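Predict the 3D structure for this chain.
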Amino acid sequence: MSAALVPGERLDRYEIVDAIGHGAFSDVYLAVGPDGGRVVLKCPHEGIIGDVATFDRFRREMEIARRLDHPGIQHSLDPGGDRTRPYLVMEYIEGETLREHLARRGRLPIAEAVSIVDRLADAMGYAHRQGVTHRDLKPENVLITADGRPVVTDFGIALMSGARRLTWRWLTSQLGTPDYMAPEQVQGERGDARTDVYALGVILFELLAGRVPWEGDNPLSIMNQAVTRPAPSLRELDPSIPPPLDAIVRKCIRKDPAERYPDAAALAADLESWKDLDLSRFVFEAEKPGLPGSRRRGPMLLVAGISLGFLGASTLFVLIVALLQHH
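Done. Predicted structure below.
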């Protein structure tokens, strides 16, 4: 890991103001640029730079940031050119994360919840048209500006269409967040636009219900439920939720990607006219378990729970899935 930067220190043309984030692979700083404007610098750790496959993912994030230009997505301000070390330069957004917004406000009114997810879906619909899949949409990766505008951030594990598959040297739970991971991600697949649709559906569920669809004592329990159990109905939790919104959320979080919206733009279209939706369009068959061999899963999960301290939860679950599918 590289030495942390401290306030007042300079990184090329930028003066560090404060450390605002620390992750497994990078540190994030608030800085002032040469024009006096505030920016965000994302600096990968030295260990990432020394690992070719993992550093390739950082360079992909840089390429994605430069490609995307939408008011609902954090902009790249990267000037290019030579620098003393790798880092991303992103716009600074004044506001709070959606997670902080929820902690402060609690369960949101229907109109506000729909507006937030509609705008997120519009932004991700744009990204999908550019061939980019986020794969880690969650309230922590959404900023809410002072005027209530949601902005998607952190494309660190995003995919680009046509890009080669990248693997990680470190096996951790960073490849997605359990509460918002689609079943195909849990089972080790790369995912696509429908994976983002799933996460948006979980976020809308949480904004409307005040909780995520599946809850558990550890990440493995949550991922197991996401793959094997039907999601609870919003209207069963709260009968005041309008049926069209219940239908939209259920379509988003279907276990089979083919039964979801094909991309975020299609979701946004329904959210914009949700009060007038024809509910006969939404016909759902009973969910089927996503994994075979469910009777043998109990002992395997017990062993997995003991092992969580040694392997990342998502990686461990994928290994368990593979074992189950070969029995």
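The chain has two domains: 10-91, 95-325.
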